[in-house]
Every structure is written in C-alpha cells, then in structure tokens.
Amino acid sequence: MAAVPLEEPEVTDMNEPWTAPPGDGTAVVPIGDVWDVVEAPAETAAWVRQLRRVEAPAIVDPRQGRAWWLIPRGSANPTAWLWHQLQPTVVVRTSGSLIVPHAARSDGLRWVKPHPWGGTYLAQPERLAAVLTLLRSATAARRASVSPFYARGDTDAGPG
Fold it and tell me: Are 49 and 58 spatial neighbours (Cβ–Cβ below 8 Å)?
C-alpha cells in the first residue's frame, strides 16, 4: 500500500478582511472556515493587551474567565511546537464553533481591543505565540522566586 502524502493545511491570508458581525448581540460561528482559535485564561488577555505586542483584539468572557484570539485558518495546528509548548494553559482549536460577540457589544462576552488598534480581527500567530510564551516564562520565574513557605500562605503572624 502506497503512503499517502499529508496535506498541509491552507493558511488564510492575513489580509483577508474578516470583521465581527455588526450590532450588539452574539453569533455562533464555525471555527476553521476563515479562522482558527487560540484560547487562554481571561487574565492572560489582560496581560497581552498591556504588552501591546498583539495587534488584534481578544474575545473575553468574564463569566467563564476565558479569552479567545482569532488567527488565520491553518495556523493553529495543536501539535505544532509553537502551540504545543503552551498547553494545557493555552488551547488551540481548528474545528467546532465559537460564540462571537458582535462589534458593538460592550457587556459580558465582548471584544477587548488593543491600543492602538488598526482594525484587524485576526492575530499574527507567531507574534501571539511569542507573547504567550513570554508570559508563561515570566509566570514560571515569578513562582520559582517565591519561597515555598510563603507560596503556601503559611505565616507565623496572626492568631492561632
């Protein structure tokens, strides 16, 4: 039996104009048609926004404590080194569906846009992965620098 060559996923052009639906509602949109998704904790999105290195907004759901970035279709291979090193905190999705807020939605599930924002909704995957890797490394370094005594919250102070 002859080996069948694996097909490389088609990567969506970064300049492909995808925009959030107009209005202030939500829509269920299939993942993998135009874009793939990178999911992380919502607090990560706040740090990414402060670093100002990712040009695209994140969808943030404060109730679930989760955030999602849209990246060009074909660039979220979950087994690729770029994303594999960030698991399990960061999850990439190439199929399924995502509830996407409309452009004007400002409460609950909403777009959190970087400053300045150029209007693109698709993040550059390499840049997003680099920022997420930096944040993961910084978090790990901070945890390693805290004494295990204090990390557990044990102190000699207070009643007891």
Answer: yes
